[in-house]
Amino acid sequence: YDSYGTTGGGEFLAAATGVELYSLGEFAGRAEVFCVEKNEYISFNTTYYATVNTYATAGGVGGRDLDLNGDTVNDADSLDSMTAYLYDQFISGTLTGYDYDNTGVGRVASANALQTVIWGIEDELGAGWTPAAGLQTTFYNDALANAGSSIGSVRILNLYENSNLT
């Protein structure tokens, strides 16, 4: 489902069966999520099949070909630990500078900034990307200073239109 943000990415709202999604608790049965691949698209109010991985299976703009264990995965894009850190902070309600209390322009600005930083970290915005001033810089610098090398329990939902995962 659509939610805050106007970048063509998150915040999105996802409802799932068969997998536990963490949520800020604002929308019953729905979790707030972001997009890691800028050139892959979804339709709202649509049912998808999903796999849960440490990498995006189609690779996106900045696709790489190794998962976190160093195993070759064709056209996969591993989740960066900085992205995982930012999402973990976001979904915990503790991301410094994120306007959780505002349901208008402040929340949209926060969602847009976080989505852009996620795409930047995940190499979806091209070589040489740097965060814009303001929230993008705040989020990026926080991740740079605190992320470490682990993705913890954060994972990627790879979505498919069909049960045969296509």
Briefly say what this structure is.
The protein contains 3 helices and 6 strands; from the N terminus they run βββββαααβ.
State the strand order across the main sheet: 1-2
Radius of gyration: 15 Å
Total beta strand runs: 6
Count, helices: 3
Low-confidence stretches: none
**Structural shape:** globular
Q: Major sheet: size, sense and barrel closure?
A: 2 strands, antiparallel
Beta percentage is 5-15%
The arrangement of helices and strands along the chain is EEEEEHHHE
Structural class: alpha+beta
Which bin fits the share of residues in helices?
Answer: 10-25%
N→C terminal distance: 21 Å
Mean pLDDT: 91
Describe this structure in words.
By secondary structure, the protein is α+β, with helices and mostly antiparallel strands. The protein contains three helices and six strands. It has helices at residues 81-91, 105-121, 135-146; strands spanning 12-14, 31-33, 49-53, 55-56, 77-78, 156-160. The chain has a two-stranded antiparallel ribbon with strand order 1-2. It starts with 11 loop residues before the first strand and ends in a 6-residue tail after the last strand.
